[in-house]
Structures are given as C-alpha cells and as structure tokens.
Design goal:
Layout lengths: L8 E3 L20 E3 L21 E3 L20 E3 L20 E3 L20 E3 L20 E3 L20 E3 L11 H7 L3 E3 L1
Parallel strand pairs: 1-2, 2-3, 3-4, 4-5, 5-6, 6-7, 7-8, 8-9
Amino acid sequence: MWDETDLETLVLADNSLSEISDRLGGLKRLRMLDVGHNQLTRVPDNIGDLDGLTDFLYLHDNRLTSLPASIAKLTRLRYLNISGNAMAHLPDAIAALSSLIELRASDNHLTTLPPSIGRLSRLRELHVRNNRLTTLPDGVGRLTELRHIDLRGNPLISLPPQLAALPKLDKLDLRWVSTLGSPPWLDDLEARGCVVYR
C-alpha cells in the first residue's frame, strides 16, 4: 500500500491498528487521511511531510496523548479531528495550521488551550466538549471567523469577555456546564443574534 504514491484518499478507520508505518510520509498526494477508531498511541513523526493534505485529517477515537511537532507543516489542512483521545494539552504546533476551518478536540483531558490558538485566523468551528477546561485563553478573541464554539461538559469558571466581540459568532454551547456564572455580556451576544445554549 505504501508504494501507491498517487493515492489522494486513504481510509484505515476501524481496523484495531496500534501503529502506522513511517512510510506514511511518502504519500505526498494525500488530500484526506482517516485513521480514526483504532488503537494508535502515536502518529508518525513524518506526518508533516504530507504537505498535500488539504481536506481532512481524522485521528479521533484512538489512544493518543500528543501530536508530533511536524504537524505544524500541514498549513493547507482545513479539518482536523483529534476527539476521543487522551490528550492533556494541545501543542503550539496546532496554531501553525493556518488554513484550518474546523478543529474537533472533544472528549480528551484538556485543561487549557494554547494562547496561540488565536493565530487560527480562518477557524470557523471549535469543538472542545467534555474536557477539563476551566477557562479559555484571551487569544480566542482573535478568532474573527469563528461561528460556532462547543464548550459542553467542561468545568468552566470563567470565560474571556473577548468572546462577545467575535463578529461572526452565532452559536455558543454551554450545556452541561454547572460551574459557570452568567457573565453580563452573554445577554449582549444573544441580543445580536448569537444562540447561546445553557
């Protein structure tokens, strides 16, 4: 399979895989890679060599605790799903994914998001449901394309008021959050048409 260097789509989901060959980096024409629903504990370090990866990268429902720094090279990637793993933090390398439109990191062990997340200037959807977040970095205020943020099931105690200034935010999901008071700017968000679920 690793000799099929013209592949543009590779789906290896639901195979109980515990590792992926480092030869993955040779599939330079891949636009979409799905290795979700496996038992991976690591992603090959040379995943950053897949500079043709533009559409989707599915790494969800594995046993990952980290991502390789080389992921920063995937500057054309638009969709990343790392939900359902065991990550305690997101690396700063995520902030280099300058084309990212949707980031899914739900059902992990995240206690914080990197302040550099504000560099994802094209991000429209951020899904971090069921983590351990108590707040968000002020950098989210720079996500001016953000439409939808899912914070369900986090033990939030505060939210940065910068969220209220996001011009395109139209859905803020705070369901199953029992630890957060109601900041006054939530009313302002709703008044301008943003749907706030709480």
